Amino acid sequence: MQKESLQYLFTVIFLFFTVASVAADDAELAHSIMEKADQIRFPRESFQVDVSIITTAADQQPDMHKYRVLSKGNENSVVMVTEPASERGQIILMKERDLWVFMPSISQPVRLSLSQRLTGQVANGDLARANFAGDYNATILRTDTIDGEKYYVLQLIGVDRSVTYHKVLYWVRQSNFWPYRAEFYSLSDRLLKTAHYENFQMLLGKQRPTRLVMEDALRKGEKSVLKYSEMTLRDLPDKIFTKDYLKKL
Question: How far apart are CA 73 and CA 33, in angstroms?
Answer without folding.
Answer: 18
